[in-house]
Design brief:
Layout (H helix, E strand, L loop, with lengths): L2 H9 L16 H10 L2 E7 L4 H4 L4 H10 L4 E6 L4 E9 L7 H8 L10 E2 L6 E6 L3 E7 H6 L1 E9 L8 H12 L2 H10 L6 H7 L7 E8 H10 L4 H9 L5 E8 L1 H4 L3 E2 L1 E6 L4 H5 L5 E6 L2 E4 L7 E2 L6 E2 L11
Parallel strand pairs: 4-8
Antiparallel strand pairs: 1-7, 2-3, 2-7, 3-5, 5-6, 8-9, 9-11, 10-15, 11-12, 12-13, 13-14
Length: 323
């Protein structure tokens, strides 16, 4: 849409919902309406009134899974002058960061009570576009969150995301946490030292790293081939009857994730309604740790493959090059 088309769209919005031009800029619901007019879906998260923060959410937990999925996010901030919005298009990566483990170890309250290490803890800065000050500027991740009033995430209309990323990694942590699950994978794996010791570390305090991102089924299958996972893994995931879109929650430990390596993944149905979870139904599709792939959540009859080493995590740009 052109600027003129955006203005015309806002003018035609009902008085109770929109505002007439001239105005100082679009409000959050006007941006949502415009994004939808452009053919995308838009999810709005309100931080200004404390609703999202009361749920224990930070902008990192909301925004980061989409950034890793190649989807930028609009952030509305409150300045001392007026409201303003910027676009987050990416992030930096610090493999030597002390804080990712220290926060959980020394300041668990600040960590929000979570038991795993979110992969955004290796992200000291978000990369933003600000029409006042320029493109590709770095903003401290935690500082930006102090002034956030709202977050808008645009997604393709063919991508029905009923489970947000912060729910996906919470679910993954819950599926992996029980001691029975630890015993299951440790008893089934055929990996040897040092990787079996690495697998055992996963269930020790402050060692499980989770990285959620959403992928098309075809993109995930391509990833399996690109990182050199075996044909047996491909066959196992085919048996899982993957939907068109999945939350891929990559699993690692700090010393491997700092080098962009993982030891497995949890696959979750992104189109699964949250209310179904509340009545006991599960969106879990599969879990793989090294050479053990479990389809569904019954934890029996796993597929044992030849995949006994860490592999690279998914890497993708925020914006795909257009040809």
């Amino acid at each position: 849409m052109t600027i003129k088309e955006i203005q015309d769209n806002v003018i035609t919005m009902p008085l109770l919902e929109g505002s007439h031009l001239p105005s100082s800029g679009l409000r959050h619901f006007e941006m949502v309406n415009t994004i939808e007019k452009m053919g995308a879906s838009a999810t709005l998260y309100m931080f200004e009134k404390g609703r999202e923060r009361k749920q224990g959410l930070s902008i990192e937990r909301v925004v980061y899974p989409y950034l890793e999925s190649g989807i930028p996010a609009i952030i509305g901030i409150e300045t001392e002058v007026a409201g303003h919005s910027v676009l987050i298009v990416g992030h930096t990566f610090d493999r030597d960061s002390w804080w990712q483990q220290a926060e959980l170890g020394y300041f668990p309250f600040l960590a929000g009570g979570i038991s795993w290490i979110p992969s955004y803890m290796w992200t000291p800065e978000f990369i933003i576009q600000d029409d006042n000050f320029g493109p590709y500027l770095a903003s401290q991740r935690t500082l930006l969150g102090l002034f956030t009033a709202y977050v808008i995430v645009p997604t393709p209309t063919d991508c029905p995301i009923f489970l947000p990323g912060y729910i996906a990694d919470s679910l993954a942590a819950g599926y992996l946490a029980p001691k029975t699950v630890a015993r299951f994978f440790l008893s089934q794996t055929k990996v040897h030292a040092p990787w079996k010791e690495t697998l055992g570390k996963l269930w020790k305090p402050r060692n499980m790293v989770l990285r959620p991102l959403i992928l098309k089924k075809e993109e995930f299958i391509s990833h399996i081939n690109e990182v050199g996972l075996s044909q047996d893994v491909f066959i196992a995931y085919n048996e899982a009857n993957l939907p068109d879109w999945v939350w891929l929650v990559e699993i690692s430990v700090p010393e491997l994730y700092s080098h962009h390596l993982k030891i497995g993944e949890v696959l979750i149905n992104a189109s699964f309604p949250q209310q179904h979870i509340q009545v006991g139904r599960e969106p879990l599709l599969a879990i793989r740790l090294f050479d053990v792939t479990q389809i569904g959540n019954e934890f029996k009859n796993p597929r044992i493959t030849k995949d006994t080493k860490p592999v690279k995590i998914v890497s993708r740009p925020t914006f795909k090059e257009q040809h």
